[in-house]
Amino acid sequence: MADKIPILTPYKMGNFELSHRVVLAPLTRQRSFGNVPQPHATLYYAQRSTKGGLLIAEATGVSDTAQGYPETPGIWTKQQVEAWKPIALLEKGTICYRNFLHIFFRHRLQHLYDEFPTKKKFMILLQIFDASMTKNKKTLIN
């Protein structure tokens, strides 16, 4: 009998019994027009679902000020919540986690773009901000 491939073997994750260890990582798809998940999102996730599999959905903004990118899904209005329901109820028995997001400060910097006299000055400020965030993350991890 051939050895089993570890990535295809079952795995217990907390209360969940996964049938394999292949996970769909979150992606920023930017296809939620008006921040509302569209019907094609159901098909997208269904095509990637397997019985006992794990999907981590794309970043989902918790408020209108939380969005870091245009056309990403939200969950702060009734219309958005209703649009997520068919996606969360995948028929194959897939475990689907929502990936909540709030990009307050970077979001605000991006919206200040028009107030800067040149694109170059804005990009320098954004690079300084990103560098400071990276440095802080390394400090917290180490």
Q: How is this structure best described in words?
A:
The chain is built from four helices and five strands. With 142 residues, the protein is α/β, with parallel strands linked by helices. A three-stranded parallel sheet has the order 3-4-5, with no helix packed on it. Strands 1-2 form a two-stranded antiparallel sheet. Strand 4 (54-61), helix 2 (78-88) and strand 5 form a beta-alpha-beta unit. Helix 1 (39-47) runs parallel beside helix 2. The longest helix has 23 residues, at 119-141.
Kindly state the mean pLDDT as a whole number? 77
Give the C-alpha Rg: 19 Å
Helix content: 25-40%
Report the major sheet: 3 strands, parallel
- Using the alpha-carbon principal axes, give the shape: globular
Which percent band covers the strand fraction?
15-25%
Structural class: alpha/beta
The strand order across the widest sheet is 3-4-5
Instruction: Extract low-pLDDT stretches.
Output: 135-142
Q: Please, how many helices?
A: 4
Q: How many beta strands in the DSSP annotation?
A: 5
What is the element string, with H for helices and E for strands? Answer: EEEHEHEHH
N-end to C-end Cα span: 44 Å
